[in-house]
Design goal:
Strand order of the largest sheet: 2-1-3-4-5
Structural class: alpha/beta
Shape: globular
Order of helices and strands: EHEHEHEHEHHHHHHH
Low-confidence stretches: 141-147
Number of strands: 5
Strand content: 5-15%
Number of helices: 11
Radius of gyration: 17 Å
Length: 220
């Protein structure tokens, strides 16, 4: 059973999402919150698998709530998905840096919402290749962090290759095919890279890959 926490200051949004999610046999909404501060309390009390959280809320916004969840060792198994009305707005990349597994636009169709919850619960990133390119092209900043080069050097050549392919939006099976290895070995390379880079999930690997220069943003 996938346990979901809804955090949004709009009751209609929460009730609509709850209605959809509770219809599924493998998904359960365990709690709702109207702001990020309340969401943090409920996350610690309920230990959900997935938190669907609005990016703009009173008291504590979605980005700060995400940052606090990602920094709490007791919430290491919690995957945050940011909800936004505006698609690729200026806050989304900051949310990914803060530790979000991905983001959804609130007018998402029901089938995509259910798929997204299941993907996030597995620990995968909610970033399609086309969305990743648009996001990175708009929001990767220069200069790069001063310690990024040192972190890259900690990766083996195969780990760097795996991270690069993750940033291109490939699944573990696709990465295995590209690297001519088994899916289990591909997953091992990715997990080791995440450990070395202290990345919470694949979304943060994507951010790191572009910021470090492993993958270059497209110009068109």
């Amino acid at each position: 059973m996938i346990r979901v926490l809804l955090v949004d200051d709009q009751p209609l949004i929460r009730s609509g999402f709850r209605m959809l999610l509770d219809l599924e046999d493998d998904i359960e909404v365990v709690a709702e919150a109207a702001d990020g501060s309340e969401g943090l309390v409920l996350a610690r009390e309920n230990l959900p698998d997935v938190v669907l959280i609005d990016i703009q809320m009173p008291v504590v916004d979605g980005i700060e709530a995400t940052r606090r969840i990602a920094a709490d060792p007791d919430l290491a198994g919690v995957h945050v998905v940011i909800l936004t009305n505006y698609g690729l707005d200026e806050y989304v990349f900051n949310a990914l840096r803060a530790g979000a597994a991905g983001f959804l636009v609130k007018d998402i169709v029901p089938e995509d919402l259910l798929h997204a919850v299941r993907v996030a619960a597995r620990g995968d990133a909610l970033l399609a290749p086309s969305i990743t390119r648009k996001l990175i092209n708009r929001y990767v900043t220069q200069p790069l962090p001063t310690d990024t080069g040192t972190e890259v050097k900690e990766l083996t050549s195969r780990e760097r290759e795996a991270v690069t392919l993750v940033a291109q939006g490939l699944s573990n099976d696709q990465i295995a095919d590209r690297m001519v290895i088994s899916p289990m070995t591909a997953k091992t390379h990715i997990n080791r890279a995440m450990t070395k880079l202290r990345a919470r999930d694949r979304a943060q690997l994507v951010v790191f890959a572009y910021e470090s220069g492993l993958v270059a943003p497209r110009t068109s």
